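Sharing in case it's useful to others searching the archive later.

Someone asked me privately for the predicted structure of Multisubunit sodium/proton antiporter MrpC subunit, so I'm posting the question and my answer publicly. Question first, with the sequence:
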Amino acid sequence: MAVHLLFNIEETVAVILFGVGFTMLLLHKNLIKKIMGMNIMDTAVYLFLAAKGYIQGRAVPIELNGIREAAAYINPVPSGLVLTGIVVSVSTTALMLALTIRLYERYGSLDLDEILTQAKEEEKT
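And my answer, the predicted structure tokens:
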């Protein structure tokens, strides 16, 4: 079992990173820490996709030296997914941070429980 985990070290690290990010997302009340957890989870998924898309001994999918066989190149789809995911992740993070700033300006706290308590009090009045 341990040999299999060491053989697939990239996948193992990706799963551990995803677990760390998911734990941060669930256990922390601070909104900034939740955003950091989400970014760690994103990074873990990108690492996993990049590790699955790489094949030892193959080249990037750019025609080199007249070689046209598909077996000589890695699959370009995982790389494209990672690049697209990074763009979406940056946009989502920017939106989450902007909303967090607005919440802080309104409620004076980054603690999710405190924000919810204050919002319920405002709703009653």
